[in-house]
Design goal:
This protein has a single domain, classed as Metallo-beta-lactamase, Chain A (4-Layer Sandwich). It contains seven helices and 16 strands. The protein is globular, with a radius of gyration of 18 Å.
Length: 282
């Protein structure tokens, strides 16, 4: 059975628009989804990212959480016939507030997998309070529980195979320890890319305020350089058939361009084709 990815809907958040795309609509609020992903087709289910803990915790960042009963992680997994105890690995693209808030729902014999550098970043204070205390404290408990936590050093090792067809690789963008999760599907390589991309339309399809050919716009929330963020996005566009960020619907990629958008699974039907505006007269 080929691997496939189901999208888990953890609710929405409302936040300032330029937090997502640099200099976009400063002072205006946008509502965006918060997704996680369920990888099926291997020996055991794998979850990538677990959403935010509760609505109240988002207020610590000046954001509004919109999470309801149907968005609870156990209910989202149940839609696909999976219980939290069935999950072998929980992988994290990174540990920000809206990505690692439900790890304590999983038993200690479910192994949480992170890039070691991301754990270091989470306690450095560099992006406080985007790494909230209860989430990181739970990971410390896992750190001292046999087999409950798994570290990789992806900047040094290169890509690591987690299970056949699932690979972990350093993202080199957004946070110091972000990682991408590559999944080999029947229709090509799909990459769960966390927050390396926030918004396909304004960063890639019609990159805001960019005039150079094939230049992408950066996000308004990154720990590294703009150069490294642009390079990380371009690498994704030139290596994967599908890209799955946390706050936007997945995209289908051809020849380094976004050509379609998908809904709640990958592979799956393209729900919307994308055409970039022609800047030159024909």
């Amino acid at each position: 059975m080929a691997l496939e990815i189901k999208i888990l809907d953890y609710g929405d958040i409302e936040l300032e628009s330029s937090f997502l795309v640099l200099a976009r609509e400063c002072g205006r609020t946008r509502r965006v989804p918060v997704y996680g992903f369920l990888i099926l087709g291997g020996t055991y289910p794998i979850v990538v990212d677990t959403g935010y803990r509760d609505n109240a915790i988002m207020e610590t960042l000046g954001m509004r959480g919109l999470q309801f009963h149907e968005n609870m992680i156990e209910n989202q997994l149940a839609r696909h016939g999976v219980k939290v105890g069935d999950v072998r690995y929980v992988c994290h693209t990174h540990l920000h507030i809206d990505h690692a808030g439900k790890d304590d729902k999983f038993p200690m014999n479910t192994t949480v997998v992170i890039n070691r550098r991301e754990m270091e970043c989470s306690v450095s204070g560099l992006m406080h309070p985007q790494y909230p205390k209860p989430d990181i404290q739970h990971l410390i408990e896992r750190l001292h529980t046999p087999h409950a936590l798994r570290f990789e050093d992806l900047e040094l090792s290169g890509a690591i195979e987690l299970i056949p067809g699932v690979y972990l690789e350093a993202a080199n963008a957004h946070t110091e320890g972000s990682m991408n999760v590559h999944v080999e599907t029947a229709e090509g390589l799909a990459t769960i890319c966390g927050d390396v991309i926030y918004d396909f339309q304004d960063q890639i399809v019609e990159p805001l305020f960019q005039v150079n050919d094939h230049e992408v716009q950066v996000t308004g929330n990154h720990a590294g350089s703009k150069r490294s963020e642009k390079a990380a996005v371009k690498k994704l566009l030139n290596s994967s058939r599908f890209l799955l960020p946390i706050h936007d619907k997945p995209a289908k990629i051809e020849n380094g361009q976004v050509v379609g958008r998908l809904d709640m699974q990958v592979p799956g039907p393209v729900s919307q084709t994308v055409q970039k505006r022609n800047w030159f007269p024909v």
